[in-house]
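Worked Example 4.2. Consider the chain below.
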Amino acid sequence: MAGARILVVGGAGYIGAHMVLALLTAGHEVLVLDDLSQGNPDLLPGGELIRGDLGDRDLLDTLFARNRIDAVMHFAAHAQVGESVREPLKYWENNVARTVALLQAMVGRGVARFLFSSSAAVYGEPEQTPIVESHPCRPTNPYGRTKLAVERLLAECDKAYGLRYMSLRYFNAAGADPDGRLGERHRPETHLIPLVLDAARSGEPVRIFGTSYPTPDGTCVRDFVHVSDLAQAHLLALEALLNGSGSGVYNLGSSQGHSVREVIALAGQVTGRPIEAVEADPRPGDPAVLVAGSDRARTELGWRPRWEDLATIIETAWAWHLKDADRRDARTV
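Applying the procedure from the previous section yields the following structure tokens:
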């Protein structure tokens, strides 16, 4: 169903901008709401940007009153596990309280389709891998607990107001638009692959947070999923909601686990550069292993990831990393 009007909250961020690109390519109209505290407006591929605070009820009421909106996609969470342990109030205020304001505005204006950027962090330490959607949710950090709180709220809103939602539980988003138009740029950068690529480019060492986990090489194991594949899954979930589907919860991952040391070694092969690593203390709240079981998304949504190989994911990230670094260097000259 092309031609829907979609509000993308946090659309100037890493995943949000890739989502905007996918929506525009699919023929949808896009409004972006972003306060630009973390977003990069120069990466937006199109759509109408509205700069503002997600918790501003007057802004939300005006936005929904003036625009016919068919669905909302929400990407505007704080998402650093370690920071959430140090500053839980920041995470509950932004990730939960501001989402409540958004849902109140939607319900008030009769907007009844919502796509939520959730996380594998809702599961906590897995009892078995790969993790499927029926796995118990026992998050080990405030970030995961805020994501789970919103999921539970969405289920209540479905029952009370008929708000249909798709909660998409990402594992580790990675990579960049294969055509080089968009990529990852955070302030500060905390994601493993761009940090490793920074080390490859600068020659500075990358830190490994924890080397005594119960994994084959002692470092955390994660499931990396290409950001463009995540965007495609959102398009399929959106289409399902627009066609009358009920609410759903889906894991999005490659179902393959790679340790931190494996990522560093593979990045060295992709870049052709030596990457030095130094050991550091583990971060509070980091589970040892997170690997997705994504059969439900493949079966029910028809999701078919195109860039599942980790080397390919790193190659797209490296191409973007070099291009964006050159552009930033040029601006400082």
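The chain has ten helices and 14 strands. The longest helix spans residues 310-332. Compare this with Example 4.1 before moving on.
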